[in-house]
Amino acid sequence: MAVLFTRAFALRPLPLLIALTLLSAAILAACDPATPPAAPAAPPSQPTVDEILALDQAQSEGEVTPAPEVEAAPQPDPDQEDPPEPAAPAVEALVFVEPQQVRQGMSFLVVVDSPNAGAASVALEGAFLSFIREGGRLFTILPVDAEAPLGPLSLLISIADGEGRPALTVELEIEVLPANWPVEVVEIDDENSRLLDPEVIAEDLAVRSGVQFSKSPVRLWSGFFRPPTAGVITSTFGVRRSYNFAEPVDYHTGMDHAGALGELVVAPNNGIVAWTGETERRGRGVIIDHGGGLFTTYWHLSSISAEEGNPINRGDVLGRIGSTGLSTGPHLHWEVVVHGVAVDPIQWIREQEVPDPSAQFDPSQAIYRTEGAVDDTPTGAATDSG
Ligand SMILES: [Zn+2]
After folding, report:
1. pTM for the full model?
2. How many angstroms does the Cα of residue 327 sit away from the middle of ligand 1?
């Protein structure tokens, strides 16, 4: 089964600073390889989430090893003059993950349907990513790295109430399946051997990663992405690359389309032109921000007609196919990047596979739902399909 387990905790309205301090402490502790996992039940490969949960639990229950009777919410004493502790904020939520079967290089959607949640974020592989709100829904698109370890991938979703107070934490584990990337031999001459120069690689990475941090906070795309050029696909994502028959040292982070010099390259979906420019490795390029951490990028162009900062619509011309940068001939290399991680574009150009944040989900398919989860008691109410 893809979803291994879910756990949820309703939080008392802690002062935010304390909550953040605890979270930071948990992360720092988890980053220290000498620190043993705090929770005995934790899978040994996932200390971060369990240490965070252990701290959450300890804080909300007042002790590190809770006895079951301590978990009951204290009843207000009518004779007591001190005002009773404020009740935990009530947030109702259904959580969906789509698709639940993910393999290396895939993108997936996490949705929190809630009438009264104020915000949500998710901790994934050490990054904290915000959800986007659309109507009564919060969602985010998440990446699975092409070289992600197989097996469980932990997500820790934090949901706040309408006033920004932490209300609910949901821990999920989904299973990453193997992509079995093929190996491709790339023969490079002396000039293109600079492809392997660390300085050339670093310059290219620096340019791109800087752009992809300033993301549009709203979703600009909809539906699937049309291929950006008419040419056939000549190399797919994830292929392990052997340069001149040596042991593969990296993999193909995008998709290549054949094309004649000067052939048009168009935007596959709506967005904002986040960057135009040139790097030594990739030549002339365009980066489109589609919102919410989703970017697409286009490289080796002979010319660029998109203008940085301008909105762009599906079908608008970005530029023309070329062979600039370290390239063996005219072609388009394009990438789909989710929260800084390159993912397989094939999923985004297929109508049946593209993540759809507007999709209606069957409530019975929720992998977590609040059901008595607001009374400070770990309910185990989560659906456990394992
Ligand atoms: Zn390529």
Report:
1. 0.74
2. 9
Q: Alpha carbon 28 to chain centroid distance?
A: 21
Strands 132-134, 127-130: pairing is unpaired
* Range list for CATH 2.60.40.1930 in the chain: 3-179+356-369
Distance CA 131, CA 112 (A): 9
**Positive or negative, the Cα torsion across 224, 293, 367, 138?**
negative
Strand partners, 288: 273, 296
Distance 235 CA to ligand 1 centre (A): 7
Peptide bond preceding 99: is omega within 30 degrees of 0, i.e. cis? yes
Rounded (10°) angle between helices 16-31 and 47-61 = 150
Q: Which of 24-38, 176-190, 252-266, 357-371 has the lowest mean pLDDT?
A: 24-38
CA of 331 to the centre of ligand 1 (A): 8
* pLDDT (mean) for 271-278: 96
Give the HSE-up count for residue 336: Cα atoms under 13 Å, Cβ half-sphere. Answer: 34
DSSP per position, 249-299: -EE--SEEEE--TT-EEE-SS-EEEEEEEEETTTEEEEEEEEETTEEEEEE
What CATH class does 3-179+356-369 carry? mainly beta
Instruction: Give per-residue pLDDT as tens, 24-47.
Output: 433 333 333 333 333 333 333 434
Centre of ligand 1 to C-alpha 103, Å, is 21
For residue 131, what are its two tokens?
Answer: 């959800």
Average pLDDT over residues 3-15: 50
Domain 183-338: give its CATH superfamily: Glucose Permease (Domain IIA) (2.70.70.10)
Are residues 96 and 113 in contact, defined by beta-carbon separation less than 8 angstroms? yes
Contact 98, 143 (CB under 8 A): no
Closest residue by Cα to residue 348 from 314, 317, 320, 316 = 314
